[in-house]
């Protein structure tokens, strides 16, 4: 029997406008909010999101959520059931060889861990930002390829609606190219 293939779509816009089961946040390790997507999600999600983040810090992540890992909170006032917060790697252009592969693996881990948690929650739809491509300076072309490749490999039922929400035309273009490339 063939497995139903989750559909990957690209949306240009603000991730906080999405109506999905899970919105993924490109968080920082403190889990206390920040700029970019993180700031937008906390603003629109409201105090319930921050309250859950504080509880997670107190119970498990006082030293910070490690890079490549993900945790779940309520989505507060967002049009979603949950927010999955994941910490992308800060891109280090000087790394080569094994060290470069390791930082790429951390970025892939953000997408994989988010999908794993969403699957455990029974989510059918999920919206991702382009993790690490803002303040964390990951080049968009490579970030898009890594995101699309990882999500294609790791997506499982019950997820069937997977969206990348890109904030501007440049990001959208890179994701279009990555999606059009052979898997
Ligand atoms: P990181 O620290 O992981 O780099 P950022 O939030 O700085 O995270 O940026 C990640 C990506 O999200 C960037 O491509 C940025 O342009 C984009 N972005 C910023 N705000 C939003 C938003 N509200 N919705 C979707 N994407 C956003």
From TrEMBL:
It holds the Pfam family Macro. Keywords: Hydrolase. It comes from the Bacteria. Residues 1-183 form the Macro domain. Its EC number is 3.1.1.106. One of its GO terms (molecular function) is O-acetyl-ADP-ribose deacetylase activity. It is an enzyme of class 3 (hydrolase). InterPro entries: Macro_dom, Macro_dom-like. SMART domains: A1pp. This is O-acetyl-ADP-ribose deacetylase. It comes from Streptomyces cremeus.
């Amino acid at each position: 029997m063939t497995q139903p293939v989750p559909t990957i779509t690209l949306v240009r816009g603000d991730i906080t406008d999405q109506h999905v089961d899970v919105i993924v946040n490109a968080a920082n390790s403190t889990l206390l909010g920040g700029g970019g997507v993180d700031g937008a999600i906390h603003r629109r999600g409201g105090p319930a999101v921050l309250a859950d983040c504080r509880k997670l810090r107190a119970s498990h992540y006082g030293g910070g959520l490690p890079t490549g890992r993900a945790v779940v909170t309520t989505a507060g006032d967002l049009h979603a059931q949950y927010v999955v917060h994941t910490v992308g790697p800060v891109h280090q252009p000087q790394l080569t060889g094994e060290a470069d592969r390791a930082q790429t693996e951390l970025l892939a881990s953000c997408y994989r861990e988010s999908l794993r948690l969403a699957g455990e929650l029974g989510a059918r739809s999920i919206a991702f930002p382009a993790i690490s491509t803002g303040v964390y300076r990951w080049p968009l072309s490579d970030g898009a390829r890594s995101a699309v490749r990882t999500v294609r490999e790791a997506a499982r039922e019950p997820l069937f609606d997977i969206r990348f929400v890109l904030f501007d035309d440049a990001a959208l273009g890179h994701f279009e190219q990555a999606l059009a490339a052979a898997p």
